[in-house]
Amino acid sequence: MIRIDRIRSVARRALPHVAEVGYAVGSFGISFTMLRNWPDPYGYWRDTDVWAYALLAAVYLPLALRRRAPVVVFGWTAACVLTYFTLGYYHVVVVCGTGLALYTVAALCPRRTSVRCAGIALGVLLWGTRLAEPGIGALSVAFVTVTTVVCWVAGDGSRRLAERGERLAVLTRQLREEQEERSRQAVAEERLRMARELHDVIAHHVSVISVQTGLARYVFASDPDTARGALETIAGSSQEAMAEMRRMLVVLRHGGSEGPDALTAAGGTPAPDPGLGPAPGLGRLAELARRVRAAGVEVPLTVTGTPYALQAGADLCAYRVVQEALTNVLKHAPTATRAAVLVAYGPGEVRVTVTDDGQQPFSVSPSPQPGHGLIGMRERVTIYGGTVTAGPGPHGGFEVRLTLPVTGGR
Question: What local confidence, expressed as pLDDT, does residue 377 receive?
Fold first, then answer.
């Protein structure tokens, strides 16, 4: 099978060259026959001899190489035709060779070169019109002029069509490369979004579980009720983590966007698991505060202004920022006993502030680079045109401030 494919490949590459040779030999054979059999009872032309056939072969046979060296072949053909006309042989049989050589130059060479060659071809062919039979000299001049123009126009049109095809091929290749680059960027962005979601979902619940596990271990023997409460908090946190993980998997499986609408597949088909419920939002901050409160940090929640519905993605974004801020309190501020959450609904924007009372800001780290949580906050908020700042609070501790623009909010 491989050998057959190789033979086919070689045949496809050789076919154009075989066709060129066949055309050149066939043209020579037809012209040879015409020259030999054309009657000349009045002696208008020089008697056909070996030089006439040799010049005829010199005109047509090199045309097999016309695509490899179009200008050289045209120059050779024009010189042979000029010699042929000058010697006075029957002139019609070499006109086609000149026209084909000119067409090839016009099709493969720049226009400036082809125009010069067209002028040379016209001059050579006009020189041959002196051999026309009496009474048709003017017709011969018109014929060779039209032939020259048609051959040049056809060749030039072929060249422009080929150039247009090359430009189209370049544009197609560029478009394909741009599409591949966009696909790579989309994959990278999706991977980043997945990493951000995994961090937000897992880090918070694992932090709560870790704190409660330590508490349960510490009071397991001395205070069974407290240990039992810690275990219940662990169970609830793990169940909620599983629910959020399942929700995220549904979103990824159906290619949806963040938010409740992500649970609807393309085309309006309901998601396969309606029991997942809506994605988290500012309306579920009380549950989040209760969970962190169970881990030993007081979380007073204050809402100012008149609450209004946010876009699903923006609502989830605000929730995740609060969740990450409280998670950082549990992970990096062991002295903190209080983390206040303030949500302010204003005209056109929602402002969220999370302030803890830890003595050491949880962002202090030997590494100069911010943690993945803070990076994820900024990336998430940037998507919705908001801003987030994180740093030491005005009265100690650490403070995270979020400002999220809202379209149509009031």
Answer: 77
pLDDT at 326: 86
pLDDT digits (tens, 9 = 90+) for 159-183: 999 999 999 999 999 998 998 888 8
Q: Where are the alpha helices (DSSP H) in 220-298?
A: 224-254, 285-294
Q: What is the mean pLDDT of residues 352-362?
A: 75
Which amino acid would we find at residue 222?
A: S
Question: In sequence order, which residues have a C-beta less than 8 Å from that of residue 187 and are 6 or more positions away?
Answer: none
Report whether pLDDT(260) > 70. no
Report residue 60's pLDDT band, with 50, 70 and 90 as the boundaries.
very high
CA distance 303 to 111: 77
pLDDT digits (tens, 9 = 90+) for 273-299: 444 556 678 888 888 888 888 777 899
CB 75 within 8 A of CB 31: no
Q: Indicate if the alpha-carbon torsion angle 370, 375, 377, 383 is positive or negative.
A: positive
d(CA 377, CA 388): 7
What stretches of 88-136 show up as alpha helix (H) in DSSP?
Answer: 95-108, 111-128
Beta-carbon contacts of residue 368 (< 8 Å; ≥ 6 apart) = none
* Mutual angle of helices 95-108 and 70-87, in 10-degree steps: 160
Q: Strands 339-346 and 301-304, how do they pair?
A: parallel
Tokens of 264: 């609807």
Residues in the chain: 410
Going by C-alpha positions, the residue among 82, 187, 62 that lies closest to residue 124 is: 82
Cα–Cα distance between 122 and 118 in angstroms, integer? 6
- 47-71 average pLDDT score: 92
Lowest pLDDT segment from 233-247, 320-334, 364-378: 364-378
Q: Tokens in use for 97?
A: 């060779």
> Which residue type is seen at 195?
A
Conformation bin of residue 339: beta by default, left when phi > 0, alpha when psi is -120 to 50: beta
Contacts of 206 (CB under 8 A, 6+ apart): 241
What does 291-358 look like in DSSP terms, one character per residue?
HHHHTT-B--EEEES---PPPHHHHHHHHHHHHHHHHHHHHH-TT--BEEEEEEEETTEEEEEEEE--
pLDDT digits (tens, 9 = 90+) for 95-129: 999 999 999 999 999 999 999 999 999 999 999 99
Q: Report d(CA 31, CA 54) in Å as an integer.
A: 12
